[in-house]
Amino acid sequence: MSAPRMTLKLRTLSIRSDAHWRQLRLAASLTLLAIPLSGCGTGALWDKFMAKDDTFVEEPADKLYNEGLYLMNKKSDPKAASKKFEEVDRQHPYSEWARKALLMSAYAYYSAGDYDNCIGSATRYVTLHPGSPDAAYAQFLIASSQYDQIPDTSRDQARTEKAIAALEEVIRKYPASEYAVSAKAKLEGARDQLAGKEMVVGRYYMEKHDYTAAINRFKTVVTQYQTTRHVEEALERLTEAYMAIGIVGEAQTAAAVLGHNFPDSRWYKDAYNLVKSGGLEPSENQGSWISRAFKKVGLG
Questions:
Q1: In principle, which of 83, 163, 217, 236 could form an S-S bond with 271, CB 3.0–4.6 Å?
Q2: Burial level of 199, CB count in 10 A (0-12/13-18/19+)?
């Protein structure tokens, strides 16, 4: 090969080589630029690399607890207070502050109307600290949370049953506590609600002229809830239902027991007039289940 041709070939190779390296450098530059802009995983790594170092700093238990009290009492913000009390338990789980904060979180949740979380915190307190002087209050918070959710008599009364069970637990476990008195009052209210539900169903059957089914409902009120305000109407309804199916002896007994225990009741006047309309008088049969039910609890 001649010298001029050799020189031309080398020059051509040099030009191509330079172009090749420029292409490699460009590709490398594009690759580097693509790193922070590519998929989610790489972006997350980049964010983590660029993020500030927010190191967790533990706060003193008494500081968190007092902040919770401040939010509760001064700011009237039970939701925010409950978070502070929970933070005491999270950061200092085995301290005396955690025990007090757990009870306060239950109270804060109750004040905020967050009954499920109140029940959760109070149940945890009773479980962890059954011998504590405050266990009675924790149990009362559980019962009160159930009680405050009792629905009206047109709806299912499962919540009422739970409230009754929880209130009876307070009375059974802590009979000498101040909360037992309040629990007894709430218990009467819950029982009255169950009696009201029986009356609603009983009246429905009366309208349908299903007197046997109605009698069974009113009987439940008389035998199980006779200390509630519904018992007077239940006795009058029994008088009405028994008269409708011709069992006049039981109708007379229901009217007589009603008159004996509640002589000034408007329901007694209705029962009396109903019996009289059939040419009869109220007359108590001592062997009737109605008479026995009232004597069992010292009435009549």
A1: 236
A2: buried
Q: Is the Cβ–Cβ distance between 188 and 228 less than 8 Å?
A: yes
Nearest CA among 135, 81, 89, 134 for reference residue 108 = 81
141: left (phi over 0), alpha (psi -120 to 50) or beta: alpha
- Residues near 157 by beta carbon (within 8 Å), at least 6 away in sequence: 150, 151, 193, 194, 197
Angle between helical axes of 178-207 and 135-147 (0-180°, round to 10): 20
How far is the C-alpha of 274 from the C-alpha of 282, rounded, in Å? 10
- With tokens 């409950």, the residue in question is 82
What global pTM score does this model have?
0.75
Encoded amino acid at 119, one letter? I
CA separation for the pair 188, 171 (Å, rounded): 13
Q: Enter the DSSP assignment of 39.
A: -
Three-state DSSP class for 213?
helix
How many Cα atoms sit within 13 Å of 38 on the Cβ side? 9
Helix, strand or coil, per DSSP, at residue 162: helix
Mean pLDDT by 10 residues, the chain (300 residues): 39 42 44 44 49 63 95 95 95 94 97 97 96 96 97 94 97 96 97 97 98 98 95 98 97 97 96 96 96 75
CA 19 to CA 24: how far, in whole Å? 9
What is the number of helices (H) and of strands (E) in the chain?
14, 0
Residues found in the chain: 300
Burial class (CB in 10 A: 0-12, 13-18, 19+), 111: middle
